[in-house]
Amino acid sequence: MSLPGERAKGGGRLSIGGSDIAVGAYYAAPVSSIRLEPFVQDHLGGFREMLNDPDVLRFTRMPDPAPDGFDRSWFAAYEQGKADGTRMNFAIVDGPARAFLGIAVAPSIDTAAGEAELGYVVAPWARRRGVATEALRQLTTWAFTDLAMVRLQLLIDVSNEPSKRVAERCGYRLEGVLRSLYFKQDLRSDTESWSRLAGDS
Length: 201
Prior knowledge:
201 residues, two-stranded antiparallel ribbon, 5 helices, 9 strands, 26% helix, globular
């Protein structure tokens, strides 16, 4: 689950996560200041804003359109996953103000098999600045180091070229195409499977 880079549309300013962000221009976050932190309720405002973006709805499993209350049901599902060790979600944030830049997730964790699926979604106001690459790099390190995973997988739409480049930069390898994979809401999509093993250089 990931998104292509895109210039944020519209104008004005948007207050997200305690930060005042210019909308309609790129958010210039130095890669060194980007970090992942456990997703909490304070991040829901930025998450809701992302659900208005066409590419988020196109390339992720978020329902289209997102029904009322979806943000809280999504949050609750991940809270349950944290409790039983089957899911984890992080907010991608920048700097002391913790400006919200997107999410990095492990929607599926199988500790017995040592396998996890990872995903990342960068908000439209933060794209094309290396945020996705840095977020996936940190998420991958977390999965291998903290969870002791053996195999990590990314599922990427065949038309999502920018996300494929992110995967490649982070050391993932293309395994093949899963044809007409069930996606969401009775939609099917050709999806590439990318993986990285703990022993990969």
